[in-house]
Structures are given as C-alpha cells and as structure tokens.
C-alpha cells in the first residue's frame, strides 16, 4: 500500500527537477534534504519506512546527477579532440522546456511533443529537428545546430529563408486567397537553437491542416548554396480542447468589435476576433494596429505569442487569429480588452514608449467583452 500523499509525490518531482537543474558547485544532498526536512515540520509525522525510501530516492537521483557532473568535469582533463567530440553531444534538455513559452513547456512536461532525431548536413553545417508539437491551432518545431565556441552568429541569424510543405503542397495552398501564411522564427533555449511556428487559416477562409501529415522543411542557410531539406512527421496531439463560438459584439463610434471564436488547449489559447468599421471607412493608424489583451477572472493577463490577420477587399473588415499562452486551468470567465497603440506626434509611425521602453497602449473600455467559459466542446 502506498503511504505517500499526492502532495508528497509532487514535492518529490519538484525535488528531482531541482537536483537535475542545480549548478555543480553545491552539496546537492545536504541542500535538497535540508529543504525537504524543513518543510516537514508543518506536516504530521511520517513512518520511518516512508522517510527512508524518500531519502534513498533522493540519494539515487543525486548520485546520477553527480556522475554526469563528474563526467563533464573530466572532459577538461582529456585531449582537446575528445573534448570537442563530447561537446557535440546534444544537451539533455528540451528546447520547448527552456524557450520561455508556457504552452511549449507544458507540451514537454506532459509528453505532448514528439521527440525527433532527424538531421541533415551540408558543407560542414548540420541542422537537426529535435521535437515538434501540433495542438490543432499552432505547429511548433524545435531546430538545433551543434555548438561551436567560435560561432559569431546565432542559428536564427544563419537562416535566410524557410519554406514548408504539407504532404508535398505549399502551406499557402491551405490558406485563403492571396494568402501569405506567416512563418514565425522564435528564440530557442540558446543561440544554437530556434523554434519555427506557423498557423492555419481555417478561421479566415482557409482550409484546416490535416490531423496527421508529412511536413517538409526547406531551410536556406547563409553561406550554403542549396537549401537543407528535412521531412518531419506531424500529428495533432490535443483532441479535448474547449471551443466556444460566442459571436458577441460591442460598438463604439464607428467600430464594431466581435468575438467570433475561442479555443483553449493545454498548449495555446486562440482567439478569433473581427473588427468592422461601420461607416465603410478603411483602417488607418492607430486602428490599423488594434490588438486585444486576455484576462481571467482574477485579472491575470495572458502573454501574446503570435497571430495572423486579414482584411477584406474593401478594407473595412479585419479578422484576427491571436495566439496566447494557455491558462493554467480553465477559468470561469475571460475578459477581452481591445486596445490601440499610442504614436508619437512628432515622429511619423513611432510609438510612444513607457518607462520600461515598451510601446504605450490605450484600452477601449466600450469594446470590452467578458464571457463565461463552460466545458461544453
């Protein structure tokens, strides 16, 4: 019979992560055991058998970590050739876990991303695809190159062009008419990695991507004549996300703001909105840069991670698909707050900046929408 509580299991998992991520010059055993022992004073006494097992597990984890650290230390004592070879071994850490994107961290922690070991080499340059995830709203691909001490440019700097094909067809063929289907290159965990992301345009008149497909990545690297081509298997991993189509509108002056669709997955919060200029005028600054922030019932704001938009032929309707980091848990309500950027009156097209050197925004409270979230899909 297992005598540990769920809380203790959670603490052990946190403890294991702490040990694995702690720098070398620290007594890991004493530090971590002191930490867990100090928290035990606030709990009821445990059986000595359970405590012993916990300590044994910590010792085993620490010993494993110490072996890895010792191996790395030994590399400084061996020949330069062997040390250089060891440095080519990939670091045992996920790009998604360390890239600073909560959704991709969740994908890694919950085993929702597909780990790959696919690479291509040309002219002494190797490009690898280490992982991919597709939750139905965005596709993220982790790419890497071997580390070189004398590298002056980041991996992103070396990439001059990216083309993507789904089952042999350009991704633009899945988009609306005259689609430019954006491909985003985002920072990875370090200078030797990056994340390629792209979205479908099913909410803007395009076709949805298949739930499973073969993706071909064609990447042009500066200094290399021919593109590097890698085939990547992609499969949608999320099927139980929450989808709402409220079609709720708010009006202010000549602006109608409509919330058309909301999709919540463990990896992405996707919001589809439409802005219509009711007097048939066309979008100009500052409405041309109109955005929206998302808040839960506690007032916590989600971080924007990407998006695409389109305007109709006449220029008075704009539809946007914005992707935000996920909620930690499904909220009871969400609030959408549209805003415009404030521009410098003395310099054409320049933003006004705040004390943190971030562009200033101004919310439009008349267009604010608060919606209840239910679990009906």
Summarize the structure in short.
The protein has 377 residues and is of the alpha+beta class. It is 21% helix and 35% strand. The protein has three domains: 6-86, no CATH class; 95-235, Immunoglobulin-like (Sandwich); 242-372, Conserved domain protein (Immunoglobulin-like, Sandwich).
H/E topology pattern:
HHHHHHEEEHEEEEEEEEEEEEEEEE
**Stretches with pLDDT under 50, minimum 5 residues:** 18-91
The proportion of residues forming helix, as a percent range, comes to 10-25%
Give the N-to-C terminal Cα separation.
38 Å
Mean pLDDT: 80
| % residues in beta strands | 25-35%
**CATH class division of the largest domain:** Mainly Beta
For the record, the CATH architecture of the largest domain stands as: Sandwich
Shape: globular
Strand elements, count: 19
Largest sheet: 6 strands, antiparallel
The number of helical elements comes to: 7
| Total discrete domains | 3
State the secondary-structure class.
Answer: alpha+beta
Structure description:
By secondary structure, this protein is of the alpha+beta class. The protein has three domains: 6-86, no CATH class; 95-235, Immunoglobulin-like, CATH 2.60.40; 242-372, Immunoglobulin-like (Sandwich), CATH 2.60.40.1640. The protein is 21% helix and 35% strand. The protein has seven helices and 19 strands. Strands 10, 11, 12, 13, 15 and 16 form a six-stranded antiparallel β-sheet that branches. Strands 1-2-3-7-6 form a five-stranded antiparallel β-sheet, with no helix packed on it. Helix 1 (6-21) runs parallel beside helix 3 and helix 2 (28-40) packs antiparallel against helix 3. The longest helix is centred in the first third of the chain and has 27 residues, at 48-74. The protein is globular.
